[in-house]
Design a protein that fits this description.
Strand order of the largest sheet: 2-1-4-3-5-6-7
Largest sheet: 7 strands, mixed
CATH class: Alpha Beta
Radius of gyration: 16 Å
CATH superfamily: Flavodoxin domain
Number of helices: 6
CATH topology: Rossmann fold
Structural class: alpha/beta
Bound molecules: flavin mononucleotide
Length: 213
């Protein structure tokens, strides 16, 4: 993992856009839980919208596991150049690849657009095909959209092509996501919150078990 995160002892909630990184401790974490950071999860949202419901789902996921892990939210997929296979890559591409490579697991949370995966997310993933950062990487996938099933299955296929290891029971489809949020852009539906908590617990358990072996 990047040194600037490794050196931090308190579980962090970091937001990365381009080369700007800002980290802060989870506000709800009590001191007793702030003793060590075991694993780090990189979260990637497939939405570029400021009031994105997928970003809200990621925030919910981060808050639900506050204190257990370092949680890095990558906000830079919109800054990556269109994939053209050029080498050497831009610093943004290099940075993105390194974040994926250094993560113990990657949580992808995405909407569906026109029955498919958002282009900016697919573009980001395409930048890792040749260099293999996703190979055997534990991945959890949440698709939050109106329907979302087509993007969900398409992305699972792409993750297969990347040789990612999608965690068993580590996928969640949240249809009609807007109806599960309040006007402050927070996930409020109890069943949805429970499902997000379950998927995160499964994801963290899987990563911890893998690290033990
Ligand atoms: C141009 C456009 C196309 C969309 N196409 C689909 C679609 O094919 N399937 C679907 O389930 N939702 C579709 N949606 C709805 C989005 O998935 C939904 O608004 C979602 O909440 C967007 O994610 P976000 O809030 O994280 O930005 C579409 C929305 C837009 C704006």
């Amino acid at each position: 993992m990047d040194k600037k995160f490794r050196t931090k002892k308190i579980p962090q909630f970091c937001y990365i856009r381009g080369t700007n990184v800002s980290c802060q401790p989870f506000p709800s974490v009590s001191n007793i839980h702030q003793t060590k950071s075991k694993i780090n999860i990189l979260a990637i949202s497939g939405s570029l919208r400021p009031n994105s419901s997928n970003n809200a789902v990621i925030t919910t996921a981060a808050t639900l596991v506050a204190g257990e892990i370092d949680f890095i939210i990558y906000g830079g997929i919109g800054s990556l150049p269109h994939f053209d296979g050029s080498e050497p890559p831009t610093p943004e591409v290099t940075g993105f690849r390194k974040l994926v490579a250094d993560a113990d697991g990657v949580l992808i949370c995405t909407p569906e657009y026109a029955f498919g995966v958002p282009g900016s997310l697919k573009n980001a993933l395409d930048w890792t095909v040749a260099t293999g950062e996703f190979a055997n990487k534990p991945v959890a996938l949440i698709t939050a959209a109106t329907g979302g099933d087509k993007a969900h299955s398409s992305l699972l296929l792409t993750l297969t092509a990347l040789s990612a290891r999608v965690v068993e029971k580590g996928t969640l489809l949240i249809p009609f996501v807007r109806s599960k949020m309040n006007t402050n852009n927070e996930v409020t539906d109890a069943g949805t919150i429970e499902a997000i908590k379950n998927i995160m617990d499964t994801f963290i358990d899987d990563i911890n078990n893998q690290n033990l072996n």
